[in-house]
Structure formats: C-alpha cells, structure tokens
Amino acid sequence: MAHFSRDDNSSIEYVDAIPRHEKTAKQKRMWKWIAIAVAIIVVIIIVVVVSVVVTQHNKSKNNNSGSGTSNSQYPISPYAHMTTIVTNNDESLQQKENIYVVGDVHGCVSELDKLVTKLNFNPATDQLILAGDLTAKGPDSVGVIRRAKELGAFCVRGNHDDKVIRLKTYELEKGENAMYPLSATMPEGNVPDPLKFKNYHVAIAKNLTQEDYDYLSSCPVMLHMPFLNNAVVVHGGLDPNISLLQDQIPYLVMNMRDIDKDGPSPENNVGTQWGTVWNEKQQNLTMTNTEIFYGHDASRGLNLKNSTFGLDTGCVYGKQLTAMNMRTKVMTQIECPLYVKQGGTSDD
After folding, report:
1. Transmembrane residues, as ranges (predicted)?
2. Most-buried pick from 13, 30, 68, 134 (CB within 10 A)?
C-alpha cells in the first residue's frame, strides 16, 4: 500500500511508493548480497595466494633436486630407527677447546684408544666426533661402541652402522627366531640395500645390548654445528645439487662417493668425487661457508679440499686412523695393523 504525506505549506501531496518496512527489508537483502560478494572475493584471493605458494615451493624443490634423485628412489627401512639431522649449537660444545673428527674406526677399538692417547684427549675440554662406520670389518665393533660412549663421543651413522641398526631393530621387534632361514631377505620394502639374514652384520647386531643399540641408533645421519664455520659431519657426503640439509637423501649421505650424470653414486670412479663438485658449487649454494667432514672413502684416503675434509684413511686395512681438529685443521694419526684386505668384502 502506498504511503501519502502532505506538505502543510502547499496543496501538493507526496507519495512514497515503497513502504518504510519494505525499504528496510530491501536494504537487508542488499547488504546480504554485498557480504556474499566480499566472501567470494576473499576465497578467490586465498586460492590465488595458496596456488602461488605451492608453485614457488615446487619450483624450489625442483631447483634443490638438480641431481634428479628423491627419497622415493631411496626409501628408508621401517627398521632404520633413524634421526636424519641433529643441530648442535650448545654453549657447552662451543666452549670446548678442541673438537676432533675421527675417520672410520671399523671395530678397531685398540687403535681408537691409541689415537685418543696421542691426542691427550680430555673430555672436560675436548669433544670427539666419529664420522660413521664405528662397526663392521674390524675385530671389536661392540667394543668401539662402548668406548665411544665412555668418551662421550658424538657420532654420525655410517652405511655399516645403518645395517647393524636395522638388523638389531628387527630382532628386537620380531625376535631372533624371525631371522630365519638365513637365505631369506629381511622384509624392509624396496630399500636400495636389502639385507639377508646370513649377512655378516647379523652377528654384530645380535651381540649388541640395549645400551649399545641405543647409543649407535642415536647417531644422526648429519651432525650440524652452525657455530663452527657452519660445519656438517657426515659419513659419505652431501649432494652438491641440494642446498638444504633437510632435503638431503639419507641413503646417499651415508653412501655417496662420486657424482655421475645421474647424480650421487656409492661407486668410485664413475664420475667426479662429490667433494670436488661441492667445492666448485659452494659459492652458489644457500649453505655458504659450509665445511664438511666425512669418512667412507678409504680408497681415496686423506682427501682435503677447501671446504671438504675426507678422513677415512683405512685403519682396518692396515693404514692409519686419523683425527682432525675442526678448529685448527691440525691432523693426528696412528698406524694400524692389517685386519681386512681392502676390497676383500663384497658388502662395502
């Protein structure tokens, strides 16, 4: 119904064709549609922003994976009980006068003791770091683990340590009786280095106590010390085409030696030694001024470059056991007797 009003000063009557209550309802509908439109715009903006972020993330991953390798190519065993990275910036470590990295010990506990003695090692002022492969090949793998723990040594996981840990984890979870027949392969999925129950690492694993296992399995794949020239201790190496530590592939970090056309390889002489490539690319990486200390490559022996320090000098093969002071780069070595002929085992 129309609403009429009169101007008292004239004879003209004004007609408001829309009643007051209907006008209010129309305004409400208008504001409702405005709110819906704003909500739609907000949703569109969120979708666009998320799309941009995802695209940039994927580009970053592609840039960091120039070697074409990925974790899916090198799956981790369900029995690995693995810590990938430990970053240690503790004040107590920074205050140590000497921080020593030791190359592959491989069960040579007597030689480790001789090296520690030659260093005049004092746990109160010094820190020892073992660059992986505490175990296998040598005479007393369990002895090395226990001595390392007594010394308060830090450690990283070597490829042989990884095998021992996986076998021990399986035994603890499934029982020793599950490790038969000896010709059977331990069920770990599509790992790059499947293990049979007749593998010689089994005997080492079975001799570990829970404390031994806890210590060895606590060794991360990478030990990062930002306060010390952004130092990283690993066993095998780091992929020069991957700039972020968290994107490195654990299997390759423990096993790499060379870089070939397809990326990092556990093999020798199939390409260029990874440290050579790393030093060439160092200035282009986001992890600038990084020093890497590693073992694993006894065939090349002592391998010192500007930013990479290879310290596996083949003690178990009758050569030397080497320690390097990470602060001063001063090396200390002791001679070792021959325990295993180099190249004498198929499981390197």
Report:
1. 33-54
2. 134
